[in-house]
Write a structure and sequence with these properties.
- Six copies of one chain form a homohexamer.
- With 290 residues, chain A is α/β, with parallel strands linked by helices.
- In chain A, 43% of the residues lie in helices and 20% in strands.
- In chain A, helix 11 links the parallel strand 11 and strand 12.
- In chain A, helix 9 packs parallel to helix 10.
- The first copy, chain A, is elongated.
- At the A-B interface, helix 2, helix 3, helix 5, strand 8 and helix 7 of A face helix 2, helix 3, helix 5, strand 8 and helix 7 of B.
Chain lengths: 290, 290, 290, 290, 290, 290
């Protein structure tokens, strides 16, 4: 059901409290002692109009964050958003137009674009993989393989791209991975230990590599199984076995080339690390029109 | 001269003071309230041996940062570094081996790998583009298009990949860009304003798009010119004009395909944004060997 | 099954990273400009032996936090722990003995005791209510009604008292409360909106006040129901209706007097706000024995 | 003189600078990655009216802090304060009414109530003990036994309850306690050391357990004596001895039952730790009226 | 050319982001728990008019910082600036007039004046030494000998005094000092090491004590030479030798007495540490006119 | 009595917790992105011996702070302290010798010296003014006119110079100043308001300009009087009037020239702002001896 999958129209904005520190940090990192070029060339009285342009087509995410960058330097800058988060920009389309003092526009430019290009890159990569599996019910979910310090923003960008979020951290759900199974000495033992100690509001997912492990996990009554790096046929069999018993998640090196056949197995979720850790930035620029 | 270009053997480590906050932030982002999975399965008394493996070949950067992640949770963990920063790992080669309490190893795993994979990805992308132009004297330099909050680490990763660093921020050199020229009303006027105000220890670079602009800039006596998005022939002519008068830097959409012919123009520097903003993470994993 | 309920023997310690900032803040709040009394009376060379005593019997929680307070002033202080977290101290029993420089012992005393008394108070209140329902399978769980800035520590203290933790925040599980139902216009609609948007690893609990609401919620297939302020008979009926369909949680003004009859309904969880927001501090003192 | 004692009518507000960090910390602790329930159910466009109600009668403290919580998420929320800090709310009385976007009201609810309930609980406990000794001139003062990180707010809540503040930290007055006397080797020696070193604007108080110690302290000419855990008769004698020579402060396990007879001794101050460390939170709720 | 030297008329303001933390820190350092005097005497309803007066003549710097101090306590205070940064105040001239609530004016007074007096002291010292060499082309530059935590503000104050800024930190230019030369084993070797590794946008300056060292440095082709502690005659000779080959900077114990003869050598820059580390504060006061 | 006045031999060290943040801030301010000079010239393997020398005679303060700077970069550096805080260094005397890795020594040099020179400058200025009044019982005290962010350290430096500390902030004592008196409408009214509201452990001092005001203040029974800017004769009369009734403090433009005659009036305290806000830094240098 497409409605279930494409959440763009329902994208809920983040509170600035959640990214205010990241924005200040980025600005201070760039201009800790001032902008020697702009301060020499631009008078505090100069005004300008500028546009943020998409140089390549893509899904936009992070407009409010970029706006916050500009407003941290000058709350008086006026920004008009032409392409909202969760919507697509065409090549050379104006995403935001800005008006006000020229000096803070030029000084904040790079920090603002760095956020917007990074987050839009993630949203675009997510959108593209979501589109490839549109005929199937599977959702695309992201992982904890995010850029240090930016997880909340990157998870938001995935939602802007039409994807869903897996765990936000180590504390909001149980995911028993291969290394946990090694330490526990087996799938069943790991699950039992968790069941004895985990809170009642925490779901349990287990990573399995084989159908035997899957069988053990299902018999222990877990909520979800992460089917890791399985060949498509084995994956299809695993999905069949788990039907109505656990949510199924495929993971491991899934690419645009393989996504469709994986989704066709009927798996519930396709989790993809690279949409957060390796998505190329969207090409954006800021142009001053005097 | 290759010695000039490949600085790996002389890679100077960063002081932990420069990334301590980023590391704590990343850990708290991941486990603010604890690791519900590991805490349920692993006893505080359990010990383990583990290895960080390169799943794909690449240039390593960020070992000390990843170590700092582990040591923030448990200073008693023992790490042996098998592939140092600035060196190459082969596929499936062990980069670091770790020994000690199993619980902090599993809990710190993702935060540590997120740093190491991100920085090694940048180092690898840099190394590859540096290799492509090895026959020419040009250096590869990075830009300010970095991930918010990680600039110092990403600039370091570029050095680990054999590249050099351009400006660290808006405050350590003058770079007059197209938008400055628009506001100033011309190349010459922008340069003159800077010369009147900039400190004596600050170099001046100007972005030019045409040979006419280049001519104006050279006549003003600047230190470096950023030759933006020029066709190769125009670039070669620009390099010829600027010889012995200014450092020359080529920029704008330079790819592995075009790097060699651009370097062949004799340009001094090739600046590439994507080695920091769009390099895919290096594929790394942590495996527990009980 | 008592093993399921009393987790003391398996209490997992918190990483100091999770409370380091809280400890520094507490110390700076108390001695921002120094300890004018101790600095006037005690020489930096003086040494002392001291003991932290329980003045009243109680369950101990926070030893590592209190130790961290002392070590923030003087890493050379030697602490011997006689009653560990999750264990009970009798009146006048020595909990920790301390040896080293007298000055930091006296200066850190109050900040250390404030943590230890607060957390042990929570653990003691939890222990006592857990003991009252020991014959029944119900678990005691805490809520988000915690002291601002100390949630991770207070949730830990609940575990030290033998209780379990409900949600840690607004982000790790869905709990549809009365106000959400008002805004959504009904229980069913609220659940449907959540189901459309919540992640696959997030459980859904709904607060219901009547058996009709319970019926609606169970038909929507939620994971847990919070049965709020129900008379015991209605609660028993609700538990019966929800059996095998959802986890049941009783809440609302549960006191030591009413806990046993509530647990006797067979409810799975009893959630109690006052164990975190209103538990009296455990009476502790630090005595110097010269 | 009652005017001296009941300061409510003169309660001076705190500058938000003094609690801004505590508020942000509390919000981030609760919703670091967003409010999954509210974000799924409530549209950013929905508006609501809500009321904060006192569920039990009590003295209110912390309205501005709670307001700051709401405004950190949405500066556009409109709050009308019906019961100001330092005034009493009856059971089921509306303390604050709120109007604006529904989403931030629901998301900030718990963090705001946690502050308000905690501080109002302290104010209420203080008010009640102050009322019990209203016929006597003694003031109720709080101690340094406060919740880590919240001292400034808790001291303010004591003032809202009609109490006074003792020292704020280790740096604003000298209080020679039993442990200092042990280290110094006697009351007189401890006082002399302090007199030699303390600043001229710092008062000196000494804790004494016996009338002999009191005699020594008075002969050394101190400003105040803390009469610790004395039986009422001994306390009365001590107060008589110290009259016009030092301020007298009774401390040690003073309860509502014993407060009146202690105040009747004519002691100047009654210091009570539990009004800050063990006062139960005031029962408050937030109700949305659509 | 005086225009080149006196930049006051072109003084570019700092973004508040660059000093916001320093201002909050200063306020919290002064009034962490409130202002016991003002809160006792001044009602929150009292209003006042006040003036900041220069008690001695001097160059003003830091008005925006001082304003930010007041506005951190009360954004409603109205400040009228009568003497702007970079301009001179006469003795007893009103620099700023303030109107609004009396309480925050009195409480913020000291923190605001501490910034303004410190920065104006630096600006005044700079102005005075700049005036002494007005007939010569030399610029006065400051050093990294600044007060810890205030470098950006102090560098700004130097500009307000008509001086220029040398390096802001260890990262924005190369300055090879005597200790580096000792470690490298000589001037030439030190320069060569730097040339091999420094970025292309970084200028290189070398400290030399003798004409021989100068000769070596010039032959290596550096950008600037720091002529340290040279007698005036040697300095003049050094300047002659370096003409058109490197920027020349005189340093080492330059006082108002010696500045003019040093400038007369034709040296480009005179660097003076004491304008930042030892300039006496400008005498300012805040007077309330009821 | 000299013993009362010269506290050097009893100087109590500060806990690093009190200056750790200031030290990290200063280092990051100086080398946020690394030390481009040292990193190019000095190998991580190079070791060095260095000495911190007093270039001028002075009183030392801040050794532990400077050591903390070095150890923040490299905990392995070995420092031997030859002149301790509170002792005098002669010109060209070695204050500290340092041994270890050359790179962190050179990189930390300036940040460490900035602290040590600033604090030793304050200690030296204090020492000198204390010496001038050595024949009289008056103590020298500092004020709240300190450098923003460094108050705790500067107050410590005053103690190292043999001076005493007045208030640390607005919260540890009452000082009714001229502006308060203006707002209150008179000395007596201001004192009465304070007496009604101030805590019992807070002393009250009043600034008076005339003998009439003094008379009013003494009749109100205050603890101390600040005799502001009085001619010596009037001061002597004021001291006589206040004898045994209040501590007397002289303030207002006291210089080395006037200090002795002011002390001769028998005043208890001489408060001097310039020892903290305008003391010139002590001339120190760090020399590497290979």
């Amino acid at each position: 059901m497409p409605n279930n999958k494409n959440l763009n129209s329902e994208l809920v904005p983040l509170y600035p409290l959640l990214y205010d520190e990241a924005v200040r940090r980025a600005l201070l990192e760039d201009l800790a002692r001032g902008d020697v070029t702009t301060d020499a060339i631009v008078s505090p009285e100069d005004t300008a109009k500028a546009r943020i342009l998409a140089r390549a087509p893509g899904r936009i995410a992070g407009i409010a964050v970029a706006s916050h960058v500009f407003h941290c330097l000058d709350p008086g800058l006026q920004l008009d958003v032409l392409v909202c988060d969760g919507n697509d920009a065409e090549a050379n389309e104006t995403v935001v137009s800005i008006q006000g003092a020229a000096r803070p526009i030029l000084t904040a430019e790079r920090a603002a674009l760095n956020f917007l290009a990074h987050l839009s890159g993630i949203a675009t990569a997510t959108r593209d993989i979501v589109a490839l599996i549109a005929r199937h019910p599977a959702r695309v979910v992201c992982t904890r393989k995010t850029t240090p310090g930016l997880r909340v923003l990157e998870k938001y960008a995935v939602r802007a791209g039409g994807g869903s979020n897996h765990r936000f951290g180590l504390d909001d759900a149980v995911l028993i991975k291969d290394n946990h199974i090694v330490v526990a000495g087996g799938v069943a033992e790991a699950i039992r230990r968790v069941r004895r100690r985990a809170g009642h509001m925490v779901k349990i997912e287990v990573e399995v590599d084989t159908l035997d492990q899957l069988d053990i996990a299902l018999n222990e009554g877990i909520d979800a199984v992460l089917l890791d790096n399985m060949p498509v046929k084995m994956l299809a069999e695993a999905v069949r076995l788990a039907r109505k018993r656990a949510i199924t998640e495929a993971s491991g090196g899934i690419t645009p080339k393989t996504a469709e056949e994986i989704a066709a197995t009927g798996v519930d979720l396709i989790s993809i690390g690279w949409i957060t850790h390796s998505a190329p930035a969207l090409n954006l620029s800021l142009d001053v029109d005097f």
